Amino acid sequence: MTPLARLIAARIRETGPITVADYMAECLLHPVHGYYTTREPFGAAGDFTTAPEISQMFGELFGLALAQAWLDRGAPDRFILAEPGPGRGTLMADVLRATRGVPGFHAALRLVLVEASPRLRALQAERLADHRPHWVDRIEDLPEGPLFLIGNEFLDALPIRQFLRSPEGWRERLVGLIDGALAFGLSAPMPQVPDTPAFRHASQGALVEDNLPARLAVAETARRIARHGGVAYWIDYGGWRSQGDTLQALRHHAFDDPLAHPGEADLTAHVDFEPLAALAPAWAYDTQGAVLRRLGIEARADRLAQGLTGARLDSHRAAHRRLTDPAEMGSLFKVLAVTSAGAPPPPGFA
Ligand code: SAH
Fold first, then answer.
1. CA 36 to ligand 1: nearest atom
2. Helix H or strand E segment including 316
3. Would you give the distance in Å from CA 177 to the centre of its chain?
4. For residue 44, what pLDDT is reported?
5. 60 CB less than 6 Å from ligand 1?
6. Residue 289 and residue 324: Cα distance in Å, rounded?
7. 213 and 279 Cβ atoms separated by less than 8 Å
8. In this model, does residue 43 exceed pLDDT 70?
9. Cα 16 from Cα 229, distance rounded (Å)
10. What is the mean pLDDT of the chain?
11. Percent residues over pLDDT 70 in the chain
């Protein structure tokens, strides 16, 4: 058992089984043993690699998309440039470098990062020092104003709850103990579940996931964008309508049993974009591959290839494929752009 598994087991013995959301929150953000608190999850030595860590093109193209959206919305002379869950700060560093040449953009922006992990905040501070970032704990704490936001692989890290439609009604999937070891079980039938399309359309025996923190985060950005203008790009793996049990653990680049190594594996769930889009005054949705192509990844990739030869050229070509190919990240990853009613379509969408 990991140290965190012992703590969670003790808690369950005291107060009973906990929700999958409580379990995820403990695993990811426990102040001493949490995954994001203690580990360096990214890169070859970590547990997973994200799009901005694969190629600078990802951040550059979304940076230019944000700048174009800002221009399309009258180039407000003060706005919030926000990123929830910036990880190592790579995406934002690329956004800022790519937009240096956009007149007025840097002078107007105030950089605000939403980050729970003190360790990652320190990395971001180092990486983005020139742009004097501010940090907040939650999206709700962002300053008011026109909002231009990009969040990559943030929503999938937020705690989900899981519900099973049983013959007796909805039951919640819980984490409890069997013979002293962490094990999944089910609650008694519940009087009420969230009112989203996935629940309304679930058939008998279906497992439905609900990401309440994601709904709150997107609702909050939608409210700000409706009031002050702006665009939010949410990029993540997932789809339209809950896909059953998608809770997954990654440890050393391999799938792991989600209950096996609490605190030592990354825990995520696929994002269901349907209930998130429903919160936006206006939105667009497509695959990452399609959006990157419309943002000009082919031309950018060719341009970067001109300066490369040998192994570096091969790895650049491989990174391009990895981001866009349907067999790699191109189709599994989706982009939801939240915008205001009547505003020009967000860059990257037809
Ligand atoms: N966007 C980065 C990192 C993704 S990993 C990239 O693409 O490489 C998820 C990030 O979200 C990490 O920075 C993690 O510390 C942060 N995070 C996870 N849960 C959070 C929460 N509840 N509140 C704020 N930040 C959180």
1. 15
2. helix 310-324
3. 30
4. 65
5. no
6. 4
7. no
8. no
9. 45
10. 95
11. 99
Q: Is the CB of 86 under 6 A from ligand 1?
A: yes
Per 3-state DSSP, the chain is made up of helix, strand and coil in percentages (nearest 5) of 40, 25, 35
Residues 169-182, mean pLDDT to the nearest whole number:
97
Q: Are 347 and 71 in contact (CB under 8 A)?
A: no
Q: Using one digit for the tens of pLDDT, what is the confidence trace for 336-349?
A: 999 999 999 999 99
Residue whose C-alpha is closest to residue 102's, from 79, 127, 132? 79
Q: Please tell me the distance between residue 154's alpha carbon and the centre of ligand 1 in angstroms.
A: 5
* Under 8 Å between Cβ of 263 and 30: yes
Considering only CA atoms, which of 147, 136, 80 is closest in space to residue 108?
A: 80
pTM for the full predicted model: 0.96
Among 87, 88, 35, 54, which Cα is nearest to 266's? 35
Q: Tokens at residue 99, please? A: 């937009």
- Domain 39-159+211-239+281-339: which topology? Rossmann fold (3.40.50)
Determine how β-strand 230-239 pairs with β-strand 147-152.
parallel
pLDDT tens sequence across 255-273: 999 999 999 999 999 999 9
Residues 132-147: what's their mean pLDDT? 97
Q: Is the pLDDT of residue 14 over 80?
A: yes
Residue nearest to atom 14 of ligand 1 (CA): 85
**Residue 37 pLDDT grade (very low, low, confident, very high; cuts 50, 70, 90):** confident
**Gap between the Cα atoms of 280 and 341, Å rounded:** 9
At 252, the pLDDT band (50, 70, 90 cuts) reads confident
Burial of 224 (0-12, 13-18, 19+ CB in 10 A): buried
Smallest CA-to-CA distance from 112 within 280, 203, 224 is with 224
Ligand 1 pocket, residue 116 CB under 6 Å: yes
Task: Using the structure block, give the residue that is written with the tokens 């309304």.
Answer: 200
Q: What backbone phi and psi angles, to 5 degrees, belong to 115?
A: -145, 130
- Distance between CA atoms of residues 155 and 237, nearest Å: 9
When pLDDT is cut at 50, 70 and 90, the band that residue 42 belongs to is confident
